[in-house]
Write a structure and sequence with these properties.
InterPro entries: Cyt_c_oxidase_su6a, Cyt_c_oxidase_su6a_sf. It is found in: Mitochondrion inner membrane. Belongs to the cytochrome c oxidase subunit 6A family. Keywords: Membrane, Mitochondrion, Mitochondrion inner membrane, Transit peptide. By secondary structure, the chain is mainly alpha-helical. It has a domain of about 30 residues. It has 2 helices and 2 strands, in the order αββα. It has a two-stranded antiparallel sheet. A hairpin with a 2-residue loop joins strand 1 and strand 2. The longest helix has about 30 residues. It is elongated, with a radius of gyration of 35 Å. It starts with a helix and ends in a 42-residue tail after the last helix.
């Protein structure tokens, strides 16, 4: 009975192990320090989310300036034959309709 108590006390004094090897804490800090650090970064994250959303809304609210004039390069819009859907490209939005002249 005494040897059982001695063995149990010895096992309780040893650090916990996994398959004979000691469990290693990667940061080397105690559990309390890890919890404190985790809570700090949780607060930082919750504070950063509204800031990021506000910056995104401010950035998206400004009107974007787009150039509406196409450059007059000689290699643009070369058509050797008409497309099956008409004389303009499939995704050209500013294409003149039938009967209208190009600018």
């Amino acid at each position: 009975m005494q040897s059982l108590l001695r063995t149990t006390a010895r096992q309780l004094r040893r650090p916990p192990t996994v398959a004979g090897a000691p469990i290693r804490q990667m940061s080397g800090a105690s559990i309390e320090e890890e919890v404190k650090e985790m809570n700090k970064w949780r607060i930082v994250t919750y504070a950063a989310i509204p800031v990021c959303i506000a910056l995104a809304l401010w950035d998206m609210s400004a009107p974007a300036e787009h150039a509406h004039e196409r450059p007059a390069y000689p290699y643009l819009r070369i058509r050797n034959k008409e497309f099956p859907w008409g004389k303009c490209g499939l995704f050209e939005m500013d294409c003149p309709k039938d009967g209208e002249e190009e600018e």
